[in-house]
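Anyone have tokens for DDE-type integrase/transposase/recombinase? Sequence:
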Amino acid sequence: MKTWSAVVCVAFVVDTFSRRIVGWSAATVKETVFVLDALEMAVWQRDRDQRPVKPGELIHHSDAGSQYTSFKLAEHLETAGIAASIGSVGDAYDNALMESTVGLYKAELIKPRRPWKTLSQVELATAEWVDWYNHRRLHGEIGHVLPVEYEANYYTELTKPQVTSTI
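Reply: yep, here.
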């Protein structure tokens, strides 16, 4: 998006199960480092939630932009034990969840509040929007509940003792 001072790019990491945004980053350059920042935030968030990333359990799906096809990102994903998946070029349906999330971001935050002045202004507003998106916005795809509530319910069910009956 354009600001008065520069063009700002935003990258999100979304959990496809819960629709929760677990990482994001904004920058004035469309380079691998800003994608790595979003990924690192996601890993940090999972550690903070006491749900650390376990090697072999995650897939990082992205479009075929140069920042996602870099050797640096591939090495980082491999080191973290995260499988890489890159969508086909020019196919918005291949990355529909992210296209939808970015569309909501633009419709609910970016377009209504423009003009944007600086990267810092976009970052602050994005942090507030992500908090709202995860903690106060109901999502139809997951039964009209909040992403954080959907995850909490899932982990509660996982930790319930299994009741078995004997006859």
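The chain has one domain: 9-159.
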